C-alpha cells in the first residue's frame, strides 16, 4: 500500500516544481520516444474514438454500420426527448447520494489513521474490498438483499415495524437502492486515497496542536480537514465523473426488462438503450457527446469553485 | 525525504492530478462500431473428414450445454481435427454482443439465432444461406415443422433449419393443489377455471406466502398466448399494422390485469423482484405458465416429484405460441466449411434425437420428439407436442426489438392496474404501427 500512497503525490508533484523552459537544452527526441507507447495507445483507443463519436453524432447509422450525414437532427431529437431529462435527473440524484460518501470517507479514513490502532490494515482491506469486487457480483448480492418479499433489508425493517417497499421494482425507490450500493462501493477507493493524503500531514502539526490543548475533535477540524482539502477535491472530482457514468450497477441490480427501468435509467443506460437496443447509433453518439459535455462542464465548475475552499498547502 | 521540510502533497499537484483523471475517465467508454460483413454466397462443399479448424459456436442457454457437449462428442468422431469452442452468453446480453460482433465482422462461426432477430440479420447479409446444403442433400427442410422453416426463410431463401421448438404449457404443483383442496387442471380448462383456482389457492395458502399462478409477463410465455386464445393478433396479417387496440387483443391483455388484481398471481413488482420460474420451483406458486424449456430447471428442483403439466387453458379458442431456435453460419466466417459441417451435423436426425433423449429441448426433426415426451417420468410432457395442432408462430418483423421495447414500456402499467387500458393500448398501437412502417 505504501508504494501507492507515495506514488500519488510524487508523480503529480513534478509539474509544480518544473523549471521555466528558456535557455534549457532539450534532450532531442528521446522523451517523445519514451512517451510514445502510451501516447499511441491513448490516441488510438481514446482520442480517435472520440473524434469518430463526434462525427457519428451528426449521422444516421445503419444497424450494422454505414452512416449518412443528417446534420444536427440527432441533437434536436435529443433536447426534445423527455427520456433525456428523466435520465439526467436520475444521474444527478445518484451523483448527489454517492457524494455523501465523501465526508463519510474522510471521517472513516481519519479514524483508521489513529496512531496505534490495532488491525488497521485489516480494516483497510475490509473497506477496500467492495471497490475491487466485480460490480455484477456485488449487484447480484444486493439484488437479493433488496428483494421485496424475501430480502434481508425488508426483514430488518419488519423487525422495527416498518413495511419495506419493493426496492428494485418501484419507481423512485429503485434509483435510491442503486445509489446506496454506489455509495457503499465507492467508499473504499475514497478512503484509500484520503488515507494517502493523511499520511502526508506532518505529525508535528498534531503534536503542536495537542500541546496547545486542542481536543481530538478540534484537531480533526482545524488540522486534518484543511490540510486534506486537496485530496478531498481530487476524490470529489473522480467520484462525480464515475457517478455520471453509472451503468453496470444499475443494469445488474434492476435488470434491463424491469418495468421500473424507464423511470429509473441513467444517462449511460439511455445511451446503451438507444445504441444497442433501438439500433440508433447516431442518436446514441449524440447522447455520448452530451454526457461528455456535461461531465466537462460539471468538472470545470468544480475547478472554478475549488479556489474558494481548497487550501494551498 | 524529511517530512518537516517538504509537503509532497501540494494543492497544485492534486488539482493537476484531478485534471488528468478527468480527461482519462471522461474519455472512457466512448467507442463505436464500424466495418462491414463478408458477402454471403450460399456455396457449400462437404468438408473433408480430416479438415483442421477451430471454430466458435455461440448460444445463450446454459442448461442446454450438457446436451450440446454430447452432440459435439459425436461431431468430433466424424471430424477429429475440428475443435469447437462453445461460447455461452446470457440471453439479456446475447444480441447486444452479436450486433457488435456483426458490425466489426467478428461474429462467431456458428451461432443461435431466434425469430425476432432473424430478418434483421438475413436482410443485412450477416448470415449464410443454406441453399448449398439443401442442393447437396445435406439438409432437407421437409424434415422440420414448416411453420418454423418459414420463420428462417427470407425472400424464398433458406438460412437455417430449426434445432428445436418451444410451446407454452401450464406447469403445476400437485402438492399445493392438494393442500388448498382445489382440483388439478385438466385439458378442458378455460380462463375462468384458471382464475378461480388461482385466487382460491392464493387466499387459502396466504399465510405461507403462496400464490396460485405466476407467469413471466413477457410476450412469448404470457400475453401473446392469451391474445391468440382470445382470437386476437399482435400484428395484422400483412405485417404492416399493430392490432393492440382491437377488442380481441385487448381481452388477452385485460385477462392478466384481472388475474393480478384478484391476487391470483403475484404483482408485477413481485414478479420483477423474483422471476416467475423461481416462484414455482421454490414452491411459492402452484402454477407456472411457461415453456417446455423450463423442464431442466424444474426437474432439478426439490418440488420435481409433485410437478405435472397441462395444456394452456382455453379462451375463445385453444392457442399457444410456437418458436424455435436455429443454428446459422456467419457470412463472414473464416472457417465456413467447418462451421457448415457442424451446422449440418446438428441438423441431423441423430444429433437432434440425442438432444431430445437428454431432455434438453424438443428437437425439431420430425419423429425425434417422443424421447423428449418421455424424458421426465410421470410427467405428461406430451402436452407440449400435442399443442402443435393449434400453435401460432411468435410475432416478428424486421425490427422486432423496436416494438418489443414499446410493449415493455406500456404493458407493465396496464397489467399492474396503474395505466388505463383503452388509451394506453391505443397509444401502443399507434407507436407500434409507426415502428413497423420504419422497419
UniProtKB/TrEMBL annotation, chain A:
Ranges of residues in domain ABC transmembrane type-1: 87-302
Chain positions covered by the region annotation Disordered: 1-22
Keyword Membrane among record annotations: yes
CDD domains listed in its UniProt record: TM_PBP2
Biological processes, Gene Ontology terms: transmembrane transport
A GO cellular-component term linked to this record: plasma membrane
Low complexity: compositionally biased ranges: 1-19
TM helices/strands, residue ranges: 28-48, 55-79, 91-113, 125-146, 175-198, 232-253, 283-303
Pfam families for this protein: BPD_transp_1
Cellular localization per UniProt: Cell membrane
Main location: membrane
Topology within the bilayer: Multi-pass membrane protein
Keyword set, alphabetical order: Cell membrane, Membrane, Sugar transport, Transmembrane, Transmembrane helix, Transport
Family statement drawn from the similarity comment of this UniProt entry: Belongs to the binding-protein-dependent transport system permease family.
Protein's name according to its UniProt entry: Multiple sugar transport system permease protein
Automatic annotation (TrEMBL), chain B:
SUPFAM superfamilies in the record: Periplasmic binding protein-like II
Similarity comment text for this entry: Belongs to the bacterial solute-binding protein 1 family.
Gene Ontology cellular component list: ATP-binding cassette (ABC) transporter complex, substrate-binding subunit-containing
BP terms from Gene Ontology: maltodextrin transmembrane transport; maltose transport
CDD domains: PBP2_TMBP_like (cd13585)
One example GO MF annotation: maltose binding
Key word Ribonucleoprotein present: no
UniProt entry tagged with the keyword Metal-binding: no
InterPro entries: SBP, TAT_signal
Keywords, ordered alphabetically: Signal, Transport
Protein name, per record: Carbohydrate ABC transporter substrate-binding protein (CUT1 family)
Amino acid at each position: 500500500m505504501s508504494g501507492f500512497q507515495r506514488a500519488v503525490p510524487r508523480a503529480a508533484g513534478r509539474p509544480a516544481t518544473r523549471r521555466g523552459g528558456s535557455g534549457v537544452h532539450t534532450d532531442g527526441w528521446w522523451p517523445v520516444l519514451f512517451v510514445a507507447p502510451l501516447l499511441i495507445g491513448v490516441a488510438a483507443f481514446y482520442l480517435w474514438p472520440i473524434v469518430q463519436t463526434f462525427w457519428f453524432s451528426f449521422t444516421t447509422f445503419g444497424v450494422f454500420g454505414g452512416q449518412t450525414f443528417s446534420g444536427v437532427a440527432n441533437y434536436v431529437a435529443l433536447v426534445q426527448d423527455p427520456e433525456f431529462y428523466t435520465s439526467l435527473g436520475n444521474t444527478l440524484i445518484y451523483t448527489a447520494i454517492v457524494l455523501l460518501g465523501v465526508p463519510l470517507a474522510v471521517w472513516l479514513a481519519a479514524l483508521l489513521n489513529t496512531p496505534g490502532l490495532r488491525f488497521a490494515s485489516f480494516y483497510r482491506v475490509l473497506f477496500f474490498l467492495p471497490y475491487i469486487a466485480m460490480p455484477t457480483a456485488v449487484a447480484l448480492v444486493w439484488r437479493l438483499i433488496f428483494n421485496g418479499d424475501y430480502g434481508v433489508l425488508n426483514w430488518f425493517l419488519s423487525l422495527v415495524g416498518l413495511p419495506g417497499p419493493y426496492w428494485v421494482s418501484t419507481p423512485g425507490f429503485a434509483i435510491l437502492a442503486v445509489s446506496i450500493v454506489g455509495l457503499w462501493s465507492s467508499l473504499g477507493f475514497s478512503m484509500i486515497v484520503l488515507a494517502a493524503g493523511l499520511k502526508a500531514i506532518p505529525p508535528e502539526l498534531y503534536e503542536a496542536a495537542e500541546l496547545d490543548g486542542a481536543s481530538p475533535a478540534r484537531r480533526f477540524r482545524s488540522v486534518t480537514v484543511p490540510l486534506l482539502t486537496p485530496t478531498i477535491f481530487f476524490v470529489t472530482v473522480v467520484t462525480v465523473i464515475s457517478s455520471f457514468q453509472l451503468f453496470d450497477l444499475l443494469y445488474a441490480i434492476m435488470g434491463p426488462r424491469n418495468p421500473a427501468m424507464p423511470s429509473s435509467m441513467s444517462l449511460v443506460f439511455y445511451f446503451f438503450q438507444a445504441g444497442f437496443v433501438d439500433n440508433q447509433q447516431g442518436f446514441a453518439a449524440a447522447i455520448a457527446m452530451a454526457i461528455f459535455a456535461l461531465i466537462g462542464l460539471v468538472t470545470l465548475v468544480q475547478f472554478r469553485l475549488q479556489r474558494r475552499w481548497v487550501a494551498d498547502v | 525525504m524529511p517530512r518537516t521540510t517538504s509537503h509532497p502533497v501540494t494543492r497544485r499537484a492534486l488539482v493537476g492530478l484531478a485534471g488528468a483523471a478527468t480527461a482519462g475517465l471522461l474519455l472512457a467508454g466512448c467507442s463505436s462500431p464500424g466495418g462491414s460483413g463478408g458477402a454471403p454466397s450460399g456455396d457449400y462443399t462437404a468438408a473433408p473428414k480430416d479438415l483442421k479448424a477451430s471454430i466458435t459456436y455461440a448460444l445463450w442457454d446454459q442448461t442446454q450445454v450438457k446436451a450440446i457437449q454430447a452432440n459435439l462428442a459425436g461431431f468430433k468422431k466424424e471430424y477429429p481435427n475440428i475443435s469447437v469452442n462453445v461460447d455461452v452468453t446470457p440471453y439479456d446480453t446475447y444480441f447486444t454482443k452479436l450486433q457488435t460482433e456483426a458490425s466489426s465482422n467478428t461474429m462467431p462461426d456458428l451461432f443461435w439465432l431466434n425469430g425476432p432477430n432473424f430478418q434483421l440479420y438475413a436482410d443485412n447479409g450477416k448470415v449464410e444461406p443454406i441453399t448449398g446444403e439443401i442442393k447437396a442433400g445435406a439438409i432437407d427442410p421437409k424434415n422440420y415443422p414448416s411453420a418454423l422453416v418459414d420463420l428462417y426463410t427470407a425472400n424464398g431463401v433458406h438460412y437455417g433449419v430449426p434445432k428445436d421448438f418451444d410451446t407454452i404449457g401450464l406447469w403445476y404443483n400437485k402438492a399445493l393443489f392438494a393442500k388448498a383442496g382445489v382440483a388439478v387442471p385438466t385439458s378442458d380448462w378455460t380462463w375462468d377455471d384458471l382464475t378461480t383456482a388461482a385466487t382460491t389457492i392464493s387466499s387459502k395458502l396466504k399465510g405461507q406466502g403462496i400464490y396460485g399462478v405466476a407467469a413471466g409477463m413477457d410476450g412469448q410465455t404470457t400475453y401473446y398466448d392469451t391474445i391468440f386464445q382470445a382470437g386476437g393478433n399482435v400484428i395484422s396479417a400483412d405485417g404492416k399494422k399493430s392490432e393492440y387496440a382491437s377488442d380481441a387483443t385487448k381481452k388477452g391483455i385485460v385477462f392478466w390485469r384481472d388475474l393480478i388484481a384478484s391476487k391470483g398471481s403475484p404483482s408485477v413488482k413481485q414478479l420483477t423482484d423474483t422471476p416467475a420460474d423461481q416462484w414455482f420451483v421454490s414452491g411459492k406458486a402452484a402454477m407456472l405458465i411457461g415453456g417446455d424449456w423450463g423442464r431442466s430447471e424444474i426437474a432439478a428442483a426439490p418440488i420435481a416429484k409433485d410437478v405435472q403439466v397441462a395444456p394452456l387453458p382455453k379462451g375463445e379458442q385453444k392457442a399457444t405460441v410456437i418458436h424455435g431456435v436455429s443454428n446459422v453460419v456467419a457470412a463472414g466466417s473464416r472457417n465456413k466449411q467447418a462451421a457448415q459441417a457442424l451446422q449440418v451435423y446438428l441438423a441431423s436426425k441423430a444429433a437432434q434425437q440425442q438432444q431430445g433423449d437428454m431432455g434438453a429441448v424438443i428437437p425439431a426433426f420430425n419423429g425425434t420428439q417422443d424421447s423428449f415426451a418421455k424424458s421426465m417420468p410421470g410427467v405428461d410432457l406430451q402436452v407440449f407436442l400435442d399443442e402443435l395442432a393449434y400453435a401460432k408462430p411468435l410475432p416478428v418483423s424486421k425490427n422486432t426489438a423496436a416494438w418489443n421495447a414499446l410493449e415493455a414500456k406500456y404493458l407493465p402499467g396496464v397489467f399492474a392496474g396503474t395505466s388505463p387500458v383503452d388509451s394506453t393500448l391505443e397509444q401502443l398501437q399507434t407507436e407500434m404501427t409507426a415502428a413497423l412502417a420504419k422497419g
